[in-house]
Amino acid sequence: MTKKPAPATNVEPSESKDPLIGKQLGDYRLSSVLATGGMARIYKAMDYKLQRNAAVKVLAAEEAESDKTLTKRFQREARAVAALEHENIITIYQFGEQEGVYFLAMKLVKGKDLAQEFKRLKKAGQKMDIRRGLRILTQVASALDFAHKADVIHRDVKPSNILLDEDDKAILTDFGLVLRSSVETTMGTAFGTPRYIAPEQAISSNKALPQSDVYSLAVIIYEMLVGETPFTGDSPMEIALSHISDPVPPPRSKDKSIPEAVERELLRALDKEPEKRHRTAMELVRSIQRAYGIDIEGGTQPSPSIPSASSMSSASMLDSWSLPSADPAALRTAKDKTRSRRGSLRRILFLLILIAAVGGGGLFILQSRTGSPPGAPVTLIYDDANFTLVNNGDYDLNVFDLLLMRGVEGGGDDFSGDRVSSDTVPAGGCFRVVLQSDQGEAPVQCKSIQSIEQLTNALRLFWRKENDSDTPISSFEVRFGGKTVAVCDTVARGGDDECRFTWPVPPPTPEALSSPTS
């Protein structure tokens, strides 16, 4: 009986006709084809000296002949990734050229990629569990931020380049479009995968920057939550143009179960302008975690962005706009200050619950009529050696009564606003507190720097987790006029974070701005 031919796969030539099967490249003997791509093919191979399997990426000869930049890009990928020693970045074993064949040997990951997992779930009519997805993408974010700190931009972040091993550990791979932002420009015409490409990268590949990878990661999160990417089309060019010019369909227009806070963070990460996105990949993933009330390390926690009537007291529910990330002690302080209003607050809370129960969307309508609390948006941007307060509002802030406090007030590492020149931070301006021995550049959001305070002891930096005692401190408070307006996470050595809150003082009226000063 004649054996029926095997069904077609993504490997076009049969392995028996592949001239590289059985060939030795460096220390690796190729045994089978694992995958094919635009400019390369990946083989399973064995290093018989060390008795270990490997994946060997081989540059297609016909592609290399037609585009002379490919060999340089291939070599650039090998050098860039080999320098990135991170548990969530593919490990490089060897790079070489043999008889005109360029190859890159790397660790063989047993498992599947994220694209295959998305496809499997979609076929079953399911979406990925939020906790699992965020755990995977936290690892990817860690890998991206590590690469970005080494001035390496991936430029092709997509589900098929995220491998999942047998323990569901994420491995970022395929740095074929990698760019060293500080020293290199792009080579060739390849610019990334249209469905996941950032607008600036679609316009010009050499305009890619770390926030371009953040955008691509946001597209993956969007796909994980919604079941599809924001833009589709009949051609790669049509999709790329959508990223450049079309507004992103709000995730809640596809799935109402997605919290509003999650939608806000996703739309921010998918902004057309890179500087408006999250500063790091980890910042993006953490913001989604907080919006869902999920702590990947320690379990579920109440979400500060989505307060519920069952989990918050009447005082904290109505004061939560000025305490967006306050700890329980700060919330108790706010509650004590509102005891005299408790009777009326209880009646208001009852009314809110009644409206929500009867009308479904009534609570949202009431909130939208109430509007956002007055004041300017403020962003705190900090790493282990530099702290910056950015006034994102459109009027000057008087910071004289501001206190940034870690631990107990008066403990020796507080920073008071009276140390800022002229006691004010102008619109779009900032003030900085830096470690004298390691002063970094100001964030791009700073249009002007009002003052810089240099400190000499890292253990006394109020935004650092480490301190003079044996017990690390996990947060610092932002106080204004004696009231806690935000509680922000501290960072450890090598860490960075961002904290946002609304300035508690309303903007000056037009009359006040136009009246002469006495």
Structural summary, described in words:
There is one protein chain. The chain has 14 helices and 24 strands. The strands form 7 sheets. It has a 6-stranded antiparallel β-sheet with strand order 1-2-3-4-6-5. By secondary structure, the protein is α+β, with helices and mostly antiparallel strands. The chain has helices spanning 61-66, 69-82, 114-123, 130-149, 199-203, 210-226, 236-245, 260-269, 281-292, 314-319, 328-337, 342-359, 362-370, 510-514, and strands spanning 24-25, 28-36, 40-47, 52-59, 92-98, 101-107, 111-113, 152-153, 162-165, 170-172, 179-180, 294-295, 299-300, 377-383, 386-391, 397-398, 402-405, 415-416, 424-425, 429-435, 448-455, 475-480, 483-489, 496-502. The protein has 3 domains: 15-107, 2-Layer Sandwich (Phosphorylase Kinase, domain 1); 111-300, Transferase(Phosphotransferase) domain 1 (Transferase(Phosphotransferase), domain 1), CATH 1.10.510; 377-510, Immunoglobulin-like, CATH 2.60.40. The protein is elongated and about 75 Å long.
